[in-house]
Amino acid sequence: MNKRSIETWSAAKSADLYGVKSWSGGYFDVAENGDLCIKPSPASKTRVSIPEIIAGIRDRGFEMPVLLRIENILDSQISLIHKSFGSAIKKLGYKGEFRGVYPIKVNQQEQVIGEICAFGSRFHHGLEVGSKAELITALSHLTDHQACLICNGYKDAEFIDLALYARKMGFNCFLVLEMPSELELVLERAAALGIDPQIGIRIKVSSQVGGHWAESAGDLSIFGLSASEVVDALDRLKAEGKLDCVRLLHFHLGSQVPNIRDIRTAVHEVCRMYAELAAEGCPMGYLDLGGGLAVDYDGSHTNFESSRNYSLEEYCSDVVESVMTALDERDIPHPHIVTESGRATVAYYSVLLFDVMDVSRLENRPLPDVVPDDCPDPVHNLLEVYQAITPRKLQECYNDAIFYRDEMRQQFNLGQCTLRQRAMGETIFWAIMRKVADTMDDLKAPPRGLTDISYPLASIYYCNMSVFQSLPDAWAIDQLFPIMPLHRLNEQPTEKALLADITCDCDGKIDHFIDPREVKRVLELHSFEPGEPYYMGAFLVGAYQETLGDLHNLFGDTNVVSVRLGEDGGFDIVREQEGDSVADVLSYVEYDPKTVAGNFRNTAEQAVRDGRLTPQERRDVMKAFRNCLNGYTYLHSK
Ligand SMILES: *Cc1c(COP(=O)(O)O)cnc(C)c1O
After folding, report:
1. Which structural domain, as residue segments, surrounds residue 164?
2. Which positions are catalytic residues (predicted)?
3. Which of 357, 290, 347 is nearest to 546 (CA)?
4. What confidence tens digit (pLDDT) does each residue in 478-488 have?
5. Residue 504: active-site member
6. Which residue lies with its CA nearest to atom 5 of ligand 1?
7. Are both 512 and 410 inside the same structural domain?
8. Could you tell me which residues are beta bridge partners of residue 38?
């Protein structure tokens, strides 16, 4: 490590190192004292220390890991989206309004939906549902009759009936046709209940997009009507005299669309379709552009799949301008623009807080002064390589080291090298790797072939959390999330590490980290001092992670704590939800905790009968069993 730069390290350097300004959306910042802080809104001067929030949470008896939700951020994101569309509409002289809706599937937790409805009511922010369960939650929260309630997803008569009743009660509810056969059912139920629906039509757009969810659009997308199916639907509606029910056109490009050009192309195509529907005599009035507004997880501002090459302002003005240009050509009145941005609305709002339990690192053994004469040649050669390392010869020394190590192993297999000789050779080999890596850190332009050398040298930081439960997309689709320490940021990090979770699964690790230019395989961290807490955070985890997470190794839901930050720098804990206990997760997988405890009690009593336990010892054993059964599934820190 570069000892000489320790004195000159600063909190600002940490902010650079972890790219905080690039990915934080203005909500997170590093304070002089080395704490990572939250800002209630990007423009605010207030900063609230996350370590202080953690202390407050722990004082109240909650343990790590904790999912922290910051109400102010959700509030602020909803405002930002509406204000950005609002100013684009004003600037361009667009005649329609913006009506945002939140797609419930992105984070369905009751608190999230409740807050979105509360914070969104001043903008008539609505909800999008894709199932009966989601429609029920929407109807239990939404009270604003100007807000849109968009019913996507496959529907049966029950779903349609409930949506029709919602319409009758005054909700601005739309039934969006996802497949041709739904139209017959909608017409039938509408006639039976005597309620005219507002119908939306979802179309397949032919333009393809980049990013993970490329298949959501295009001819092979599973949702939406093709051009000929749209024509069939219009003919059928005309025949029934119900063409005037068609009010909305919908499409969805897929989530996390990194390239603004793909969005523009698709919006243009959809506007052409809108114009055609209007020309066919549909009253229309709403254009629903779906989700897709991306989050810049890695802060690179590129069309890389974990990023986006546009800002919110650009997205809004590009969308409004494209719609306007396309419709003005045909003299068609401007519709209300609906978007279903989920990811961009909720991603920033949640942070996973966790602590490090332990660290394992490659042994750093002292080098032998001399290699005994009777050692095989490759061991002698390795020591020579070590002594020959200079900045100019890094690649050469690295290649030689690999060569001699392999040769030594071969000789071991042939019985020409003893265990002790091999151990000495490997000690020298790792010393070479470390010296090459350290020398590389000092070089402006390190050899390209060596950039991955820190990976095998990395320490492993064992983190008190489950990737499968809390960051499922990091495991399933290699999604990058910003991850960093939450304190000691005024100290120079001296370790390069990958993270392992506490599941017993070799996939339960994180070894891809954000970087402005590429993807890093190791993360810079501070040395771990046993007995002293080391807290880390995974950021931008508010979208999709909570209910996609699973019970791998029976690690359950984490504790959830919601805070509201005050402009005075204080915070209120506004809601707490205890995570799953062991008994909870056992009941999810068909155990009855009472039976489990009863069975164990019988076993313990048998041990008393057999003379292995005294009755008093049985009491202690049962107490330990019950503590575990009723306790948190994660590890207790000391
Ligand atoms: C998933 C989904 C969304 C949300 O997309 P984001 O990219 O998260 O904004 C919106 N609309 C529909 C129809 C969806 O399926």
Report:
1. 130-288+299-340
2. 504
3. 347
4. 899 999 999 99
5. yes
6. 291
7. yes
8. 28, 48
